[in-house]
Design a protein that fits this description.
The relative contact order is 0.23. The chain has 272 residues and is α/β, with parallel strands linked by helices. Strands 1, 2, 3, 4, 5, 6, 7, 8, 9, 10 and 11 form an eleven-stranded mixed beta sheet that branches. A hairpin with a 5-residue loop joins strand 9 and strand 10. The chain is globular, with a radius of gyration of 19 Å. Helices cover 22% and strands 24% of the residues.
């Protein structure tokens, strides 16, 4: 049984992702009509006028951030910058929304402390480790980007999440990939719920990243079960699946699965 950290000490974590029928999280399938319909549903559930989870932030890894927001820019660093104060840097303690980027080595080339994703604006928080240079921390401070130190050499997930709740007041946080980060959080007992919008499309690519991955040896391939809570048919043939993570490893009560709702509804209802 994996250790499951008390949700009172960290935000409630739900992993919300869009996939193809064959489990890919990016790829040509997204350009099909079915893929576009799934993408709209994914966005509506997370960031629509009435988001389902009412979360205060979302978290992604460095590669996902570079792919979608920072475009693999190289940060312009001043190696002669004066030493910054030790510890964390909280620039905005009460933002309506945060974008939390896991960047253990300090490599992302941000240009602003505010991330804009369609109609959503979020204050950027970088999750660093102790091996990040003074020059990079000075670079973040100059832009007004908050950062937290979570681990000396390797990422300490429980410490990072505890700081997000304590320093920024985040009670519900969306985990948004990539697949290695998703699986690492699940293996660490730090993910409570899985939310998947599955498109009625696929592209057969063997090189595209999938929903969960152990690439690079960052997490083990030990099997983990999930408990179905709800299955909802959406427009365009997409299906929205919600699972709880079975942290106990015990066989779930069959009556729970039989009670799980399978229906077609508007997903824009309040959950938390």
């Amino acid at each position: 049984m994996r250790e499951v950290h008390n949700v009172q000490d960290r935000p409630y974590i739900f992993c919300h992702m869009m996939t193809s029928l064959d489990g890919k999280i990016i790829g040509p399938y997204m350009e099909t009509p079915e893929g576009e319909a799934a993408g709209e549903a994914f966005h509506r559930i997370a960031f629509g006028d009435a988001p389902y989870y009412r979360h205060q932030g979302w978290l992604s890894g460095r590669v996902t951030t570079d792919d979608n927001f920072t475009d693999y820019r190289v940060p312009v660093l001043d190696e002669t910058a004066p030493p910054v104060p030790e510890g964390d840097f909280v620039a905005v303690p009460d933002a309506p929304m945060y974008y939390v980027s896991v960047d253990p080595s300090g490599r992302l080339g941000w240009e602003s402390a505010t991330l804009r994703y369609e109609e959503v604006s979020a204050h950027v928080v970088e999750v660093l480790t102790g091996r990040v240079s003074n020059a990079y921390k000075s670079f973040l401070r100059g832009l007004g980007i908050s950062y937290i130190i979570a681990g000396a050499d390797e990422l300490d997930i429980p410490l990072a999440l505890g700081k997000m709740k304590r320093l920024f007041g985040v009670s519900t946080l969306m985990l948004g990939g990539g697949g290695v980060l998703n699986w690492s959080f699940i293996q660490a007992g730090m993910c409570d719920e899985i939310s998947i919008v599955m498109a009625a499309a696929a592209d057969g690519s063997s090189g595209s990243p999938t929903l969960f991955e152990t690439r690079g040896g960052h997490a083990s391939s030990q099997g983990i079960g999930f408990i179905l809570q709800e299955a909802t048919v959406l427009d365009g043939g997409s299906v929205w699946l919600r699972y709880l993570v079975n942290h106990t490893g015990k066989k779930p009560d069959g009556s729970l699965s039989r009670r799980a709702a399978v229906h077609s509804v508007d997903p824009n209802k309040e959950h938390r």
